[in-house]
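Format notes (please read before filing issues)

Several people have asked whether sequences and structure tokens are stored in separate files. They are not. Every record keeps both together, in the order shown below: the sequence lines, then the token lines. Line labels are part of the format and must not be stripped during preprocessing.
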Amino acid sequence: MLTALLIEDNLDLANTVIDYLSLEQISCDYASNGVSGLELATTHHYEVILLDLNLPRLDGLAVCEKLRQSGIDTPILMLTARDQLKDKIAGFHAGTDDYLVKPFELQELVIRLQALSRRRSGQVQLLQCADLSMNISEKTASRAGQLLKLSPTAWQLLETLLRASPNVISRQQLEEAIWGEVGTDSNSLKVHLFNLRKVVDAPFNAPLIHTVSGHGFALRADNNETST
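Then the structure lines:
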């Protein structure tokens, strides 16, 4: 069953949404204000968050920003009565993944939730794996408290691996993330990965970047099924 968090101060709308979602096999927790919603979102795991823009105590934009800054990559669907472009831009800048303007059809809500739940948000600003962290907004990366010096290409590689972590990402996906569809020669990725490993893994006890034979690469602490 898909799990969701609804942060909405309109109790009638919240009850309607929760009842409808239950019929669609979507389990939904509820918070009536931004502070409570932020606490639930940071202490529980949800596959998607439904976030109202106008909330008491802490508005939706602030909730969204705090979630992304803390490294939570749960997809967020922002609900709002505001339909102007500037409001939508503000929502996306805060870290939302999708926008649904009130009033909305409940069937459309479900379709959007199901689509969002199948992916992780690309809006998160803090990426982490074990003792490795990358702060997108501050443009810094560190491991075990030590700042890492990364070239622009190494930064892109590490960000791509972290966003996929702990899942495997193929060589082609990595190449497209760095060089686009134009591609590059076969040795370039190998060289850049070698240099990235020298910075991220070599000075530390346990490697995080692993080669998964026949599949690609993965960044994770547990490497039971891979070979470096």
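For reference, the curators noted about this record: The two ends are 36 Å apart (CA to CA). Helices lie at 11-23, 34-43, 60-69, 85-94, 106-117, 152-164, 171-179, 186-200.
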